Amino acid sequence: MATLRAYKCQDCGLTATVSGGEDALFSGPTNTFYCKSCETLQDIVLPLVRPSLDAPIENNCSSCNSTHLVEWSSLKPCPRCNGSLALDPTDNFVIDAD
Ligand SMILES: [Zn+2]
Ligand SMILES: [Zn+2]
After folding, report:
1. Which ligand is nearest to the Cα of residue 15, counting in written order?
2. pTM value?
């Protein structure tokens, strides 16, 4: 069960509905990443098994398939402008996804 919340950056207007950190869906553990290529925040299901111990875990953007992803959590500043990305007070609904 994951809880998704609406976030909005007060400085650059970036919006996203994500869990804002490590979470878990029925399909596996998730984490929130920012894609530098298409400038979106998204929750990505992490691979459960690494191909090998030395292999870096590569996650792909679900929109553009880029691997230029940076981990983001709600404790961090906006990954696009370093501004204040916080819960959107005008759209603060909570979605329970499973
Ligand atoms: Zn921003
Ligand atoms: Zn992307």
Report:
1. 1
2. 0.81
